[in-house]
Amino acid sequence: MVQFAKDKGLKFIASNVPRRYASLVYGAGFEGLEALSQQAKTYIPELPIPYDPELNCYKSMISGEGGMPSMHANENLPKAQAIKDATMAHFILKNWESGMQFLHYNGAYHSDNFESIIWYLKQANPELNIKTISTVSQADIDTLAQDNHGIADFILCVDENMTNTH
């Protein structure tokens, strides 16, 4: 993707939060970000970070329903996920201009069910026209399982025996 963007003269934006800052939030909550230097804070959105613990994507991390092992769950685990989502949304908005199409690649957890990054983008600009794509694995790929309906605007259904890379 980087080479394609370079060859075509397209902007290529790294929108991820540095992993060490997500780890900091996991250990110390959003409050831990206050101690960062001014330079370090240029890699994250402006503080304080908005956060809705009632979003299903974050609630499921505590309950263990979101695919995360509940043995690692504490109140800061979903906040560590949220700093990732908030940062990606921040850099999307920082590099997007009205009338411009912006293509963002992210793991499904960051946009499934129109939450995570999408929630942050809509908090900043409810008028954004956002379309999402997700991939699901199923034994029968001819009919989309009911649980997979509505998770994205476009859903790619692949055989459950296909290799996963996460």
Polypeptide structure, described:
- This protein folds into 2 domains: 2-129, no CATH class; 131-166, no CATH class.
- The protein has 5 helices and 2 strands, in the order H-H-H-H-H-E-E.
- The chain has helices spanning 2-8, 19-28, 56-63, 77-95, 117-124, and strands spanning 133-138, 154-159.
- Strands 1-2 form a two-stranded parallel ribbon.
- The radius of gyration is 17 Å and the shape is globular.
Whole-number total of structural domains: 2
Spatial gap, N to C terminus: 18 Å
Helix percent reads: 25-40%
Return the structural class.
mainly alpha
Mean pLDDT: 93
Give me the side-by-side strand order of the main sheet.
1-2
* Count of helical regions: 5
Low-confidence segments, given as residue ranges, are none
Strand content: 5-15%
Task: Give a concise summary.
The protein has 166 residues and is mainly alpha-helical. It has helices at residues 2-8, 19-28, 56-63, 77-95, 117-124; strands at residues 133-138, 154-159. It starts with a helix and ends in a 7-residue tail after the last strand.
